[in-house]
Design goal:
By secondary structure, this protein is an alpha+beta fold. The chain has a domain of about 260 residues. It has 14 helices and 13 strands. Strands 1, 2, 3, 4 and 5 form a five-stranded antiparallel β-sheet that branches. Strands 9-10-8-13 form a four-stranded antiparallel β-sheet. Helix 1 packs antiparallel against helix 14 and helix 10 packs across helix 11. The chain is globular. The chain starts with about 25 loop residues before the first strand and ends in a 6-residue tail after the last helix. The C terminus is likely disordered.
Length: about 500
């Protein structure tokens, strides 16, 4: 058995996984492989020209890429995409053994493992997410849409791009929203708002070995293949020969070669979610009136939104006894000040309810969770115009979620923690995640525990988010991307 290195190689890890980009726009190309040799030729050019942005690139250097007429770029492959690119069989067999969700793909698992049914069912997804069309995911980021347009043209002019890949004409574009009436925005680029009006991008976890170094960082194996996870387990230690020698593995790939192929890679789930902003606002208005109380209506709206989310409008976690929202004149605190908590001071959920979005999706060290945590890295941006500018246009979120196990992390959060009853011994509610849940029962209710008062309950939830597509991709190390590009018949 070969012991893995303790610290990931930042020069091999794609930067989008541990850091993301503090940029205003993104563009995701979901591409179909039409000619394998030409497609590999294009991918090989990306590696050869150093266009895949790694975690070793400093933030200031990322910002400087525009001087080279480039944008930070990252790449992932679906399992069918790897087959179309003619990846050698031994590597495909390892995926089949250790990453069954990735192999089957999101559309095949949507109903049972992603809570996607009704209008969110995979049969209703955008056609670009069809398994036979979604093979390669290219993600680019920039400050402006114009920069993305120019960079996209440069990509399409590269050898093999148009001859080997189809789908360039329908990219998924996202942009950060920063306008909130009455809220002064700081000059830093840290404050992002999504269409429902919540502050976004606050609580992404930190990976050990990558700055900023924190005491509560997660072991690399939670997000990167080939390393120990928080439970001191590494499912990607590949031993060859296996207990039952596999003729596909033994002659072609000794264990070191197999292990190196997967190490420093991560699984990503791209998810397009359409938001019903008008419906959400109408429900908040209804509940604000129902709750009554001595506050003015705007404060009650803030209170309802905070209880549903778990955070106030500025990103601060709702604490026990807090009724009034933070003053708007105070603006937004830095996100680094908003993550040092673990619900240990709120065990009865009298601040952040058990059913609130952030307590479901990231319970941290909540004492009510008797089993292993499921950390997930989320990179995302809204798409579509702001609601008040054009209410009739589609809008929503483009989320890209990274983890080492799609089954145990991404799918578990959606199907078990998001779609099931909230955890907590004192919880009486039975609604799904109030923001992103697949609400079907109008009688289901959300529980707001209030000491010394009659129980406050919100009911009549509607579907505020509809899934428009999901794909599962493997984001390999830079070295492995080169190996994928060179496998099979060589490009001319």
């Amino acid at each position: 058995m070969i012991a893995p290195p303790e610290v990931p190689d930042a020069a091999e890890v794609q930067r989008l996984i541990p850091y993301g980009y503090v940029l205003n726009c993104c563009r995701h190309f979901v591409l179909q492989v039409t000619q394998s040799v030409e497609a590999r030729r294009f991918i090989g050019k990306l590696v050869g020209k150093g266009m895949i942005t790694t975690a070793s690139v400093h933030t200031k250097d990322v910002m400087g890429t525009k001087e080279k007429r480039r944008c930070p770029l990252n790449i992932g492959f679906t399992f069918r995409g790897l087959e179309k690119l003619e990846l050698e069989v031994p590597y495909l067999r390892v995926f089949e053994e250790k990453a069954k969700a990735f192999v089957k793909g999101a559309s095949a698992r949507a109903a049972r493992r992603l809570a996607d049914s009704g209008p969110s069912a995979s049969l209703c997804w955008d056609e670009r997410f069809e398994p036979d069309r979604a093979h390669v995911l290219l993600s680019a980021h920039a400050d402006t849409q114009e920069e993305l347009e120019q960079f996209s043209e440069n990509l399409r002019r590269m050898a093999g791009a148009n001859d080997g890949l189809d789908g360039w004409g329908q990219p998924l574009d996202g942009r950060h929203l920063t306008k909130v009436d009455g809220c002064p925005l700081p000059e830093n680029r840290d404050v992002r708002i999504e269409h429902f009006g919540f502050r976004d991008g606050i609580s992404n976890p930190v990976i050990e070995g990558f700055p900023p170094r924190r005491n509560k960082a997660h072991a690399p194996g939670e997000f990167l293949l080939g390393y120990w996870n928080d439970e001191k387990f590494n499912p990607w230690l590949l031993v060859n020969p296996w207990p039952k020698p596999d003729p596909w593995l033994l002659p072609l790939n000794p264990a070191p070669k197999l292990t190196e192929f997967f190490r420093n890679g991560s699984f990503g789930a791209l998810r397009k979610l359409e938001q019903d902003v008008g419906g959400f606002r109408a429900s908040v208005e209804k509940w604000s009136i129902q709750l009554g109380g001595g506050q003015d209506l705007e404060k009650r709206r803030d209170y309802v939104r905070a209880k549903l989310s778990g955070r106030w409008w500025n990103g601060a976690v709702v604490q026990p006894g807090q009724i009034d929202p933070p003053a708007r004149a105070l603006g937004y605190p830095p996100s680094s000040e908003l993550n040092n908590f673990d619900f240990s001071e709120d065990p009865r959920a009298r601040g952040c309810p058990f059913g609130a979005h952030i307590r479901r999706m990231n319970p941290r060290n909540d004492p009510i969770v008797p089993f292993r945590r499921r950390p997930l890295i989320r990179r995302g941006m809204p798409y579509g115009p702001e609601f008040d500018q054009d209410p009739g246009k589609p809008r929503g979120l483009l989320g890209l979620y990274f983890c080492a196990s799609l089954e145990d992390q991404f799918e578990h959060l959606l199907s078990e923690w998001g779609d099931a009853n909230p955890m907590g011994p004192d919880n009486r509610g039975d609604s799904k995640d109030p923001l992103v849940g697949n609400h079907q029962d109008p009688r289901a209710f959300f529980d707001i525990p209030v000491p010394g008062e009659a129980l406050r309950q919100l009911d009549g939830f509607n579907r505020y988010v509809t899934t428009r597509g999901t794909l599962y991709a493997f984001f390999p190390s830079v070295c492995t991307i080169g190996r994928i590009a060179r496998c099979g018949a060589p490009a001319p």
